[in-house]
Amino acid sequence: MKKIAPFLILLMLSFTGMAQSGTNIFGKDPIIHLENFQKQRVHFGYYLGFNSFDFKIDYKDLQATDIVVKKTTGFNVGIVADLKLQEHIDLRFEPGLYYAKRDLSFPGFTNQVDILREVSSTYIHFPLLLKFSSLRTGNIRPYLVGGISSTLNLSGNSKTKDDNYEQKFRVKPWSSSYEIGFGIDIFSEYFIFSPSIRGLFGITDELIRDNNPNSPWTGNIDSMKSRAILINFTFH
């Protein structure tokens, strides 16, 4: 909750600022703001947000005890480049920096050094998305968004030869995923505020196996793919 609090404060301050400036967003007859903004061919913005990353792990031996993945809350920051394709469809590129942390607990060990692997990830995220917007109602416009993304993990230990026998959990530097979600554009007098929630689903195996094919850490893993919930607050 401590990491989520700054974003909730930011959200409240945004609405407070709108109210103080006389913005009527949800009223019956709102003053229409930035009426010509959506006619622009190209526009830019930035986003702040937070995430909750997980691993989807498939096993070779389905009878074996599962690896326990403990999720924590990370943060996102990035920029938005938006190209209007037609009235209700936009192509968006949203490169950003994502920080995430997951703790993996492996079964079959008694020593905590062998049980726990902390996987801290610093991602450079490259999503290419299509945004499908509904008709604008006053100063509100809901939308759906979806697409594909590639991610570079800057802290995956991929270049080291050490493995779990030396307490090194390794993942591949690049991964791919697809994303789908929804959000809402809220038009204020001076800018557009767009909160959104999105699911990320990995489509490539990220795990680098230990040098020993029978490793008790990676020997039974058939594939390991990231998945996440992403919540972003975008400003245009």
Descriptive report:
With 236 residues, this protein is mainly beta. It has a single domain, classed as Porin, CATH 2.40.160. Helices cover 8% and strands 52% of the residues. The protein is built from two helices and ten strands. Strands 1, 2, 3, 4, 5, 6, 7, 8, 9 and 10 form a ten-stranded antiparallel β-sheet that branches. A hairpin with a 6-residue loop joins strand 6 and strand 7. The longest helix is centred in the N-terminal third of the chain and has 16 residues. The two termini are 27 Å apart. About 4% of the residues have low confidence.
Short description:
The chain has 236 residues and is mainly β. Helix content is 8%, strand content 52%.
Helix segment tally: 2
How far do the termini sit from each other? 27 Å
- The CATH topology annotation reads as Porin
What's the alpha carbon Rg, rounded to whole Å?
A: 21 Å
Counting copies of identical and different chains, the oligomeric state is: single chain
Q: Kindly estimate the percentage of residues that lie in beta strands according to DSSP.
A: over 45%
CATH architecture: Beta Barrel
Query: CATH class, please?
Result: Mainly Beta
Largest sheet: 10 strands, antiparallel
How many individual domains? 1
Q: Let me know the average pLDDT.
A: 87
Shape verdict: elongated
Measured as a percent range, the helix fraction is under 10%
Uncertain runs: 15-23
Features:
236 residues, mainly beta, Porin, ten-stranded antiparallel beta sheet
